[in-house]
Please model this.
Amino acid sequence: MSEQKKESGVDACPAWCSSTAGNSATHSHVSRDVVVEATGRPLLGRMIQMAGTDEVRLLIDDSVATLEQAETFARAILHLAAEARLAPPGLGFVADLAVKAGVSTRELAMAAGLDPQRVKAQRAGGQVLSPGEYDRLALAAAKLFADASATATTGKAADAAGVAVSAAPSQT
Ligand SMILES: [Zn+2]
Model:
């Protein structure tokens, strides 16, 4: 097996390499550092490719990961962190939609599959729902509002037109 894979000197640095250590064909490629200040010690990420190998690795603090692993991890962390975030306080336009749809906060919460008590707390100006939950609530409210509008115009030109009337004057 005298397969000669690479002639020395063929390899140049990848674009991300910031190593200044001599010969680009023989050194280990090292990226710039990504540093995020944390409360304890800073988090540090760095890309490396050991000399003589094709594989790029990510060094995250003391852990080593493949590019794919690092990307999967980053996405999972983003999802996880998003769960910890909260929607702005109050229900905003969702409350208006619920009123126009003629549904109670409880009904709205049930439609969205959320705990009514939490939705009530949010409506009262609290900040308890995650952005995802708020979105679900908004979707449910929009659907209830659309259903209510459709019901209100049933018997009129709903079928004939086949077009949603978005600015129908409200009559009480
Ligand atoms: Zn390099």
Summary: The pocket of zinc ion is lined by residues 13, 17, 19, 24, 27, 29 (CB under 6 Å). Confidence is low (pLDDT under 50) at residues 1-10, 165-172. The chain is about 40% helix and 10% strand. The radius of gyration is 28 Å.
